[in-house]
Amino acid sequence: MSYSYTHPHPAVTTDIVLFTIRDHRLEVLLIRRGSDPFKDSWALPGGFINIDEDLAACALRELEEETGVAGVYLEQLYTFGTPGRDPRERVISVAYYALVPPDRISIRAASDAKEVAWFKLDKLPPLAFDHESIVAMAHKRLSAKLNYSTIALQFMPEKFTLSELQQVYESILGEKLDKRNFRKRVLTLDCIRDIGESRRNGNHRPARLYAVKSPGTVEFIR
User: Fold this and answer.
1) Helix, strand, or coil (residue 123)
2) Active-site residue, 219 included
3) Among 17, 72, 182, 213, which residue is least crowded by beta carbons within 10 Å?
4) ω into residue 102 within 30 of 0, thus cis?
5) Which ranges in 4-115 belong to alpha helices (H)?
6) What is the DSSP string of 132-180?
7) What is the pTM of this model?
């Protein structure tokens, strides 16, 4: 298919903020760039969209090509288009954020990424382009969605305790929550189910185990 344009047109990319929680800390997956601009700098996974490619498909493809990560929950975040954000040309980026439990992924550097690694959200290295702003907006969106959706369940393993789920909320928000109020609220949402099993952690009494009722989906709270 051939194209003819009267006006100059910008290039379009996708960038992905991939979150996980490890050791009760929210972390972000970054790549070390293997080419200019910002060669050897840390950045978000992402790249240019093909002319016949869907935006979400591009985001998933770039994430898998550069980090080896696939099959994650993905949600569109925002469009970043400030002139000069990319020194090569006029580039507009459609940013996404993705969530994944730490026990369901393995990472590897590939494509034009020299290295891939997890970084704690509060200890990120200097980032290329405007990726620091993208990460900050993704964290803000994720924190806000805890109040009106079941998005936190995307971080949970197949079986988990209510204490482990509360730790996920606290890791995202960066604050402690009241145990009794949290459990009452979560159980009222009817988004998890008691699987009839329990787990003992240390000297504490066994805790009930739960599972997500609708894995891979995010429901809105009315």
Assistant:
1) helix
2) no
3) 213
4) no
5) 55-67
6) HHHHHHHHHHHHHHTTTB-GGGGG--SSB-HHHHHHHHHHHHTS---HH
7) 0.91
Whether the predicted pLDDT of 6 surpasses 90: no
Q: Tell me the mean pLDDT in the region 207-219.
A: 93
Cβ pair 155, 20 in contact under 8 A: yes
Cβ neighbours around 185 below 10 Å, total: 13
166 phi-psi bin (left φ>0, alpha ψ -120 to 50, beta other): alpha
Closest to 34 measured CA to CA, from 61, 58, 65: 65
Residue type, 62: E
Going along 1-128, which residue ranges are E strands? 11-22, 25-33, 42-43, 46-48, 73-80, 91-99, 113-120
Report how far residue 151's alpha carbon sits from residue 167's, in angstroms, rounded to the nearest whole number. Answer: 14
Asked if pLDDT for residue 77 goes beyond 50, the answer is yes
pLDDT at residue 2, rounded to an integer: 59
151-212 to CATH, choices 1.10.10.10, 3.40.1160.10, 3.40.50.300, 3.40.50.720: 1.10.10.10
- Spatial separation of the C-alpha atoms in residues 37 and 186, rounded to whole Å: 46
Grade residue 1 by pLDDT with cuts at 50, 70 and 90: very low
- The top-level CATH class assigned to 11-141 is alpha beta
CB atoms within 10 A of CB 198: 12
Q: Report yes or no: 98 and 74 within 8 Å, Cβ to Cβ.
A: yes
* Catalytic choice (115, 175, 197, 219): 115
